[in-house]
Amino acid sequence: MPGLIAASTSVPDKRIALRAALSSTSITRLPGAINPLTAKLIQEIGFEGVYVSGGAFSAGLGLPDIGLTTLTEVITHSAQIAAVTDLPVLIDADTGFGEPMSAARTVLAAEDAGIAGLHLEDQINPKRCGHLDGKAIVPTNEMVRRLRAAVTARRDPNFVICARTDAAGTDGIDAAVERAKAYADAGADLIFTEALVEEGDFAKFRAAVNTPLLANMTEFGKSELISAHTLEDIGYNAVIYPVTTLRLAMGAIETGLREIHDRGTQKGLLDRMQTRSRLYELLDYERFNEFDTGIFNFSLGEQ
C-alpha cells in the first residue's frame, strides 16, 4: 500500500531530506501545490519539494490573502497534500494565527499533519499579501517571541522553521538584514525575505546573512523573476513558486469556460486538456486495480 494511496517515504525521512537539501550547494525548488494531485505531478516531474501557499489557498476558497483562513483550514489542506507525496512539504503559516502561543500550536499541528516545515512572518496580525503596498510589521522583539515560541514547541528537531521578513519593503534591505540576523539568533533555520526587487538585492542579502535563504519567485509582484540556476549561483538554498500553478490553472479554466459559453461546446479545447489516460497514469489507476484484484480474489463457490 505505501506509494499507492499514501507516500512511500516516512515523515521523519522527508524532514531529514529537507534539512539535507538546505545544507547542500544545490538549490531546492518548491513549486506551489494547489491540491494533492498537483503535488503528485510536482514529484513526478522531478522537483525537490512542494510548497503550500497561503495566498493560493485563500484564493481557492474565494478569499483575499488578508489572514482570513484559520489554522485548522490550512493544516487540513496541507496534510492532504503532504500525505500523497514523497517530497518534503513546506507551508505558509502566515503570522502563526495569533499570539506567540498560537505560533507554538501551529508548529505542533503541522508536525502532527506530516509537514516538513513552515514559515512565519513578521507582519502584524492579520497580515496581507507581501507584494502589496501598505504592509505593517511588528517590532523585531515581538517577532522574536513568535519564533522562540515556535522553536520551543518543536518536537522533531528536523522540522524546519523559516522566518519571513517583510521589512525590505517597509524599512529597506539593511533593516531586513538586521531582522534576519535576530530571527536566526532566535532559532530560525531558514530566512525568507519578501519582495526583494532586483538580482542585486538578492545578492546583497546573501552576502550579509549566513543563515540558509529562501527566495520567492512569484509572478506579477515586486520581484524580478530570476532563474533557479542564477539564485543557486548567488547562494540561495531554496526557491518557491507559490501561486504559479493556480495562475496557470485559472488562466486555462477561464479561457475554456468562455469558449464553452460562446460556442456551446468544448470540442475546440480538447488539445489543451489533460487526457483521461494521462490523469489515470498520474493517479496510478492501474495499480489500484491490481491491488483490488489481489485482495478481492475470492469466489462464493457453490451455494
TrEMBL record:
<protein>
    <recommendedName>
        <fullName>Methylisocitrate lyase</fullName>
        <ecNumber>4.1.3.30</ecNumber>
    </recommendedName>
</protein>
<keyword id="KW-0456">Lyase</keyword>
<dbReference type="InterPro" id="IPR039556">
    <property type="entry name" value="ICL/PEPM"/>
</dbReference>
<comment type="function">
    <text>Catalyzes the thermodynamically favored C-C bond cleavage of (2R,3S)-2-methylisocitrate to yield pyruvate and succinate.</text>
</comment>
<comment type="pathway">
    <text>Organic acid metabolism; propanoate degradation.</text>
</comment>
<dbReference type="InterPro" id="IPR018523">
    <property type="entry name" value="Isocitrate_lyase_ph_CS"/>
</dbReference>
<dbReference type="InterPro" id="IPR040442">
    <property type="entry name" value="Pyrv_kinase-like_dom_sf"/>
</dbReference>
<dbReference type="InterPro" id="IPR012695">
    <property type="entry name" value="PrpB"/>
</dbReference>
<keyword id="KW-0479">Metal-binding</keyword>
<dbReference type="Pfam" id="PF13714">
    <property type="entry name" value="PEP_mutase"/>
</dbReference>
<keyword id="KW-0460">Magnesium</keyword>
<dbReference type="GO" id="GO:0046421">
    <property type="term" value="F:methylisocitrate lyase activity"/>
</dbReference>
<comment type="similarity">
    <text>Belongs to the isocitrate lyase/PEP mutase superfamily. Methylisocitrate lyase family.</text>
</comment>
<dbReference type="InterPro" id="IPR015813">
    <property type="entry name" value="Pyrv/PenolPyrv_kinase-like_dom"/>
</dbReference>
